[in-house]
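Reminder: ligand-aware prediction takes two inputs, not one.
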Amino acid sequence: MGWKLLTRRSTLIEAQHCANLLESIGIRAQVRNRFLAGALGEIPQVEAWPQVWIPEGQDEADALARLDAASADLSGRAPPWRCMSCGESIEPQFAACWQCGATKPEP
Ligand SMILES: [Zn+2]
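Here is what comes back for the chain with zinc ion:
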């Protein structure tokens, strides 16, 4: 099966966030270009941004619309949580810190 580029994000965490949201609404997604971004500690060129890819047969406009809807839905519900270990701000749908791997503290 072929894949096509859906969208780009300036950071890997945002790209991964998009892919997770897409998966959560039933659209398969892959993050590519993940090793180029920020390799030099700079804001990368758009060409080097992490990319979110979807299956070729998937409707792009539909996927983007549903991605936006899912994103708005999530942001309206739960705030990001703060990692107790490294202090990073983590999106609410993640159960563990993307940076250090610490699990989400119980409320
Ligand atoms: Zn952490």
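The chain has one domain: 3-78. Helices lie at 12-24, 60-77. We will return to this case in the review session.
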